[in-house]
Design brief:
The chain is an all-alpha fold. Helix content is about 80%, strand content about 0%. The protein folds into two domains: about 10-195 and about 260-465, MFS general substrate transporter like domains (Growth Hormone, Chain: A, Up-down Bundle); about 205-260. The chain has helices at about 15-30, 40-50, 50-80, 80-100, 105-135, 140-170, 175, 180-195, 205-230, 235-255, 270-300, 305-310, 315-335, 335-355, 365-390, 400-435, 440-465; strands spanning about 5, 200. Helix 1 runs antiparallel to helix 5 (about 105-135), helix 9 (about 205-230) runs parallel beside helix 16 and helix 14 runs antiparallel to helix 17 (about 440-465). It is globular.
Length: about 475
């Protein structure tokens, strides 16, 4: 059957700016949970008996199902209603967060993190789709997407800050329990602010497309993670790599033959959408690896405690917030593509500067400047990439567009952490083999990671320059 549209449907909300605030709060939690646990990892690992390799999976266990299920979540929202899927996702996210905070073993925590990621995959694309439906005029939508993109960057930066404060004051469990009351506010507010879904899509679901893309993305991230732990030639890594290649190839074949594909390839004829997603993929990879490494660098190399490490991120978060407020006006004057290229250049410059900090860096001379540049660049990158990715999508494809840009960020994060983490680990091992002490060796590894992250930002700038709008 075809799409059923209610005649003269009422507006989704009579208080759309309030609704935007609540939807952005939910997105803040989703992005926050990819980074808030970073500073809590040492305390968490000590209590639950997790070594360094296992600790990286506390991050991966969240971003992997999150990224892998986002496309399916977006299409489910288009089919069954964006508000409905959003509320289901929030409910699951609250329950999984409580379970994570109550964890008494590593296995229990990893399972709860996977449930968090799966729930986030339902609420994130539905939430962004609701934003595009609430704000239909060009000016209002640009401002709303500016808020949305800023939240994505602020969530990543604030995770380090809030994680340090909560861990120092209340213990590592607080980084999960904080989601429960905030999520409850969202769960109560949205039904009062946003009307029921008036448009749903009853076309047949692309089940095989959903299965192959979810399994393929999951296998790809797992292969890169195993490569870092076991090496590229280990049988487990080779099997996971082969499975990823086969499943992703099968997805392309399925989508070309499906009557109602999960991801219509016509969508990428819009070069703005293609550019936005590629930039978000690369920026997501650089950002996730950056905040994971920065947390360990501050504590294990510079000797900061959890609270000091968190507070040290205030300049980064502050720069991000300030820049996010002015980006929409800059975009109106010079255009999206010029802004995103400039933002990526600033982000890359901050990362290169941070790479030179070394094992004995003072905060004022070695960290303050890079933090401000990184925050300013991130604030503009996430806003402009999000707007590029979702601008121009139809109402019927709003869930798909939202799912794609979130998928790009989360899968980019998982891939970036796996690849850049492997590069950093190799440099650290080489430095130890050459006789360097552990802090100096770690610093060497993180310097290379920061430089590699800057390389991803430069590639993103090249993509935004070369893929001109058609």
């Amino acid at each position: 059957m075809s799409t059923i549209t209610a005649a003269a449907a009422p507006p989704r909300s009579l208080h759309r700016w309030w609704a935007l605030g609540v939807l952005a709060l939910a997105q803040f939690l989703v992005v926050l949970d990819a980074s808030i646990v970073n500073i809590a990892l040492p305390a968490l690992g000590t209590q639950l008996g997790l070594d360094t390799a296992a600790l990286s999976w506390v991050i991966t266990a969240y971003v992997l199902p999150f990224g892998g299920l986002l496309l399916l979540g977006g299409r489910l929202a288009d089919r069954y209603g964006h508000r409905t899927l959003f509320l289901i996702g929030v409910t699951g996210f609250i329950a999984a967060s409580a379970l994570a905070g109550l964890s008494v073993s590593g296995g229990m925590l990893l399972g709860a993190r996977a449930l968090q990621g799966a729930s986030a995959a339902l609420l994130a694309p539905a939430s962004l789709a609701l934003v595009t439906q609430l704000f239909t005029t060009a000016g209002d939508r640009a401002r709303a997407l500016g808020v949305w993109g800023a939240v994505a960057g602020i969530g990543s930066a604030a995770g380090v800050l809030l994680g340090g404060v909560l861990t120092a004051v209340f213990g590592w469990q607080a980084v999960f329990f904080v989601n429960v009351p905030v999520g409850a506010i969202v769960l109560v507010a949205i039904p009062a602010l946003v009307a029921r879904d008036a448009v749903t899509d009853r076309t047949r679901m692309d089940v095989w497309g959903a299965i192959t893309i979810t399994a393929g993305l999951t296998a790809a991230v797992a292969a890169l993670s195993f490569a870092g732990l076991l090496g590229w030639t280990h049988p487990v890594t080779l099997v996971a790599s082969a499975a990823a290649a086969a499943l992703l190839a099968a997805f392309v074949v399925v989508e070309r033959r499906a009557e109602h594909p999960l991801v219509p390839f016509r969508f990428f004829r819009n070069r703005d959408a293609a550019t936005g997603n590629l930039v978000m993929l690369l920026a997501g990879g650089a950002t996730t690896a950056l905040f994971f490494a920065l947390s360990v660098y501050l504590q294990d190399v510079l000797g900061y405690d959890a609270l000091t490490a968190g507070i040290s991120q205030l300049p980064l978060a502050g720069a991000l917030v300030i820049v996010a407020g002015v980006v929409p006006s800059v975009v109106a004057r010079v255009g999206l593509r010029v802004t995103v290229v400039a933002a990526l250049a600033v982000f890359a410059g901050g990362l290169v500067w941070l790479a030179a900090a070394g094992p004995h860096a003072a905060f004022a001379s070695g960290l303050l400047g890079p933090s401000i540049l990184i925050g300013a660049g991130l604030g503009a990158v996430f806003i402009t990439a999000t707007q590029l990715a979702v601008d121009g999508s139809s109402s019927a494809d709003s869930g798909l567009a939202s799912g794609l840009v979130n998928t790009s960020q989360q899968i980019g994060g998982a891939l970036g952490l796996a690849v850049l983490g492997t590069i950093a680990a190799a440099r650290t091992s080489a430095s130890i083999g050459a006789g360097a002490s552990a802090p100096i060796a770690l610093s060497d590894g993180f310097s290379l990671l920061f430089l590699s992250a800057a390389g991803l930002a430069v590639v993103g700038a090249g993509v935004a320059t070369l893929l001109r709008k058609r």
